[in-house]
Amino acid sequence: MRYQSTRGAAPLLGFREATLTGLASDGGLYVPEQWPAFTRDEIAAFAGLSYVETAVRVMLPFVGPHLDEDALRTLCTTAYGRFAHAAVTPLVQLDDRNWLLELFHGPTLAFKDVALQLLGQLFERFLAGGSTQLTIVGATSGDTGSAAIDAVAGRIGVDIFMLHPKGRVSKVQRRQMTTVLAPNVHNIAIDGSFDDAQALVKAMFNDPRFAGRFQLSAVNSINWARLMAQVVYYFYAAVRLGAPDKPVAFSVPTGNFGDVFAGYVAAKMGLPVAKLIVATNINDILHRALSSGDYSTGTVTPTAAPSMDIQVSSNFERLLFDLAGAPIGDQMRGFEAARAMQLTNAQRDGAAGLFASNAVDADGMNEAMRWAYAEAGQVIDPHTAIGLAAARASGLDPATPIVTLATAHPAKFADAVERATGVRPTVPARVGDLHQREERYDTLPGTYQAVSSYIAERAIPRP
Ligand SMILES: Cc1ncc(COP(=O)(O)O)c(C=O)c1O
Ligand SMILES: N[C@@H](CCOP(=O)(O)O)C(=O)O
User: Fold this and answer.
1) What are the residue boundaries of the Tryptophan synthase beta chain-like PALP domain, all occurrences included (predicted)?
2) Looking at the CA of 138, which ligand is closest?
């Protein structure tokens, strides 16, 4: 498989190079040149497969020629061996049509582990025996940071610099990052929002002087391998609920549009998906874009679902490119200059069939947490609650099962959960003595100069 940039002006890359590179040199995002597709019979044959075997079948078309089936199986077995549930991503029934897909059984308690545990394995495999020193630069609103740090802490050949918005992540999220004291882990709290952090990361990739000095790589969902790994659980869940004979809808708590884009890829690969419900909090740019074509940024408002306090959704570019059927460099550069754009008619019409959207406020979120607890005894986190609220308000045919992606363990957001439900979730024992450990991080102004100089002083340049 070869990978092309959404902006059409970067070299085509193979899977290995796309994984190690992250962002394309023209500022675009890498996507496969074509979508591999499964027949209905092939999808039906996924029934009864373990998570690892499903993962091997779904991802194999994307990874050749750099990995063969056995190598991919080995990596998946190691990556998913660290999950605390035998099913890796179990389904939990809430009522006669609503289900939760629990994606938080990995080491850092959020769905990011599903992709980042694999990405850590891929980095190790692709760097083995060589002299490359990767400089990973990432931005996090809380969950990517901890999952990426867990995946690469202590690995030879990798340094990770992770930017988080100071004071805007939960205490558990912060400590999961800042108490990892491995010498290759560098945590930076910046004054600003997640969008500011993400813009700084992209600016470093797009600065030829900086990017030329270091072998930069990405752990955010701008890296194609992240999304590839997330496609798997759409197949795994849908097949358990009757696919391909029965279409299934998914409600996805959304910020950077990575998780829901993985659902779009699953549909492109032949999975019968009834609807993808894009559920945002009150930072609703994606809901506005999908419902009215208006993709214009505003100010980020902090919420109790902080991981989704995002305005510029990186992966929306991948969808717009696919719907346009041609590179969209001009459209994206126009957006970056004006921080606003209108979707074209082709993009709006193309999205309308598969996507629905909803913006859920604090009352809707709290009500969903209470409903899940009263109806099914399930304590859910605020992000999952936003997905569930959107699922329950979707108006879809009642015969269609709706799977809400449960993206984080409730203990990561214990205060908000307790306020809504009266129940205080406890951090699972596998996370250890998080609140006793020493923390280490630096605080910087959210300026390019400050952050790029900090990294340049510590990262190992190319030979
Ligand atoms: C708990 C949680 N839910 C949902 C999201 C949104 O996912 P995405 O950015 O892939 O849309 C995030 C952050 O990405 C998150 O950390
Ligand atoms: N919610 C995310 C934001 C970054 O998203 P990513 O999927 O692009 O890494 C976080 O928790 O950091």
Assistant:
1) 87-340
2) 2
